[in-house]
Here is the input.
Amino acid sequence: MRILGIETSCDETAISIIDVDEAANSVRVLANIVHTQMDLHTPYGGVFPMLAKREHAKNLVPVLKQALDAAAMHTPGTTSIDLAQTEEILKLEPELFTAFKAFVPTIAKPNIDLISVTAGPGLEPALWVGIGFARALSLAWNVPVVPANHMEGHVLAALIAPISEGAYDLLNRRILYPALSLLISGGHTQIVVTDAVGSYRIAGDTRDDAVGECFDKVARTLGLAYPGGPKVSKLAAEARAEGIESPEPLPRPMIDSPDLDFSFSGLKTAVLYLTKRVTLDERTIKGICREAEDAVTDVLVAKVRKAIEIYAVETMIVGGGVIANPHIRQALERLAVDSTVKLLLPHTDHSTDNALMMALAGYFNTDKALQPGADIVAKGTLPIGPRA
Ligand code: KG4
Ligand code: ZN
Here is the structure.
């Protein structure tokens, strides 16, 4: 089964094509293209939704071309498209419609069985562009289209294990239950009881900022450019190597609270006050990065440890951009060994937003596939499941 995944929930325009061997429960990644807009958003200190939307509209057709090239599915030929209906679907994206009708009719219909697209959560203007594109493509190629949840995508990115170049085993049947997923991204910090692939209950959530957002805001306070997470992490590693410490300790918000909820806005504010009391030279910045990363890591580890006890967890899955952070990865790896829990982490390359995870989400949601061209609604706050 060949699935084309489309992801436009934030500032990456991404398309992936996968081939799932259902009998072998394995997957071949034929294409995994991620076009990041990060540099364009840097001057705004964060993702600017209307700019993200415009860039997705501009990039989707070129990214599709690249993905088809990579998958050896870019075959000249003809595909007749229903111009009126396609224009109706893309009526808010005239530039995308123009690019679409200049490209899709000039290639043969590729061997794709299903299109999967992020319907939420994310920035709604950005989500709508990907959805419109997915609907138009599904209509042109006469294949079903499935709306998928971005956060489920992050869970699934951890459920593939490499077997050879571009080929992976699916690990869905190797999860030992009870299982829990920790989701740490720019918009989410959640502990999710995972009753099965596709069945999730939120056991812990952030009361304010998400952990990635906290990294990005701490970075901004320290004068580091967006997106700050990777920069804080790099400077924190340098501080450890050079033996540099923060001038003052930072708080570990809610570390001892009896629930599984998080709060990170106090940490961001503590960094802001600290920067007003000290001279922000290079050493001090590195020291603060180290302490902020330690504070975040301590809180995550404490909450996950508590969750493992409460739910007698056998498998711990982690997803979201922040798990690209090596310090947090190592801390969770140590925790898993100590608690004899099976830990599933995504490859660093699949931690931040990509469309491979959305193609996988399509595969695990084939039962929710809709008719070609069917209506799909973008939902900025789409939850992964109900509260536990
Ligand atoms: O999952 P993701 O790519 O997008 C969302 O769904 O939000 O996550 C992006 C977040 C950003 O806040 C970014 O700063 C953070 O992940 N991030 C990191 C690292 N790499 C990305 N945070 C800390 N350390 C990193 N190495
Ligand atoms: Zn994400």
Remarks:
- The radius of gyration is 21 Å.
- The chain has a mean pLDDT of 97.
- Residues 13 and 35 are 5 Å apart (CA to CA).
- The chain is about 40% helix and 20% strand.
